[in-house]
Amino acid sequence: IVDYASGDSAARDSFRHVYSPVVDAFRGLMPLYASIIDRDSLTMAYAMSPGVRVFAPDVMDSFPAMDGVGRDLGRGRERLLRWNPVFSWPEIYGVISTYNQAIVTTDSAVLVALNHFLGKDYPGYSRFDDYQRRLKEPWLIAPMTMQAILASRYPYRPAPDASALNRMVYDGALLLATAEAVAPDSVDLTVCRMLGWTEEDMVWADSNRLQAWLAMADRGLLYSSDATVADRLTRQSPATTILHPQSPGRMGSYFGVLIARAWLRQHDDATPLTLLAPEVYNAPSLLIDAHFVP
Predict the structure, then answer these.
(1) Which residues contact residue 245 at a Cβ distance below 8 angstroms, ignoring those fewer than 6 apart?
(2) 8 Å CB contact between 274 and 267
(3) In terms of Cα–Cα distance, which of 100, 258, 243 is closest to 172?
(4) H/E/C letters for each residue in the chain?
(5) Of 157, 156, 190, 158, nearest in space to 176 by CA
(6) Distance of alpha carbon 73 from alpha carbon 142, whole angstroms
(7) Among 196, 159, 203, 153, which Cα is nearest to 173's?
(8) What is the pLDDT of residue 31?
(9) If we measure between CA atoms, which residue out of 203, 217, 218 comes closest to residue 254?
(10) Which pLDDT score, from 0 to 100, does residue 24 have?
(11) What pLDDT does residue 50 have?
(12) What pLDDT, on a 0 to 100 scale, did the predictor assign at position 30?
């Protein structure tokens, strides 16, 4: 993309043809401009944008090759196809994007904004909080991309009477399936990194697991149908303050992983994708079926 502006019309036509899914995705992100300017002008505006000019040198220096990411995603794709032989795998493109979304999915393509993964100490991330910068590490490219693909194929579909527990289990199942797909030899570490946690956060969660579970039960949080409760238990944040000021963010998602694991142990014929079916994570008997003990 950095050479797009200097190319002749034939080169630009070829670029837009080869990377048509990328151009289409950006048209979707900029509907106001897309409706009034042609594809060449839109791509030119993107190529000459401040974001591309600022981040392109650092992205190219940091990612001269993507062999490791490609290998992890390729192995992950093989596992997904074993779990679901008709799984639809998209084309994946590395891009530069100044949108807040690190990964954008469409029906046929996934755009990974590599400038969002330049390492937590990258100067351009200085305005972000620690828990946000921890999600900027390059080793998260493959897991985060896989998670976005799975979420696009298996979106959360709450039942009319959905509770916070249902959302917790969906989140946990998504994290577990992602880690099992791209990093089966380091599932716990991958889940910890995807939560944005430090080792100390994981120790706190494990040490206070029972107390946190009892607090959610005593306060009526688990079966609350208030969407804001589910959001506070699962969203990226410095702490899950609805439980305890020192608890790491996304404690609800952490419990979702534990429940998902317990459920899978009770269902030998299931795969990590099975739990991403609405009839499973919305089932009233979910905890009973999982034989879950915190």
Answers:
(1) 239
(2) yes
(3) 258
(4) CCCCCCCCHHHHHHHHHHCHHHHHHHHHHCHHHHCCCCHHHHHHHHHCCHHHHHHHHHHHHHCCCCHHHHHHHHHHHHHHHHHCCCCCCCEEEEECCCCCCCEEECCCEEEEEHHHCCCCCCHHHCCCCHHHHHHHCHHHHHHHHHHHHHHHHCCCCCCCCCCHHHHHHHHHHHHHHHHHHHCCCCHHHHHHHHHCCCHHHHHHHHHCHHHHHHHHHHCCCCCCCCHHHHHHHHCCCCCCCCCCCCCCCCHHHHHHHHHHHHHHHCCCCCCCCHHHCHHHHCCCCHHHHHCCCC
(5) 190
(6) 6
(7) 153
(8) 62
(9) 203
(10) 82
(11) 87
(12) 66
Please work out, in degrees rounded to the nearest 5, the angle formed at the alpha carbon of residue 136 by the alpha carbons of 135 and 138: 110
Residues lower than pLDDT 50 in the chain? none
Q: What does the alpha-carbon distance between residue 291 and residue 61 come to, in Å, rounded to a whole number? A: 49
Structure tokens at 268: 């030998």
Distances (CA, A) of 253 to 32, 170, 230: 36, 8, 10
Q: pLDDT tens digit string along 177-192?
A: 999 999 999 999 999 9
**Residue among 216, 195, 190 at smallest CA distance from 294:** 216
Of residues 224, 222, 220, 229, the one with CA closest to residue 259: 222
Provide the β-strand partners of residue 83.
none
Residues near 139 by Cβ (< 8 Å), separated by ≥ 6?
Answer: 193
How high is the pLDDT of residue 36? Answer: 55
In sequence order, which residues have a C-beta less than 8 Å from that of residue 134 and are 6 or more positions away?
120, 193, 196, 197, 198
CA dihedral of 149, 153, 158, 160, whole degrees rounded to 10: 150
Q: Are 122 and 58 contacting, i.e. CB atoms less than 8 angstroms apart?
A: yes
**Alpha carbons 103 and 112: distance in angstroms, whole number:** 5
Tokens of residue 14, six digits: 């070829």
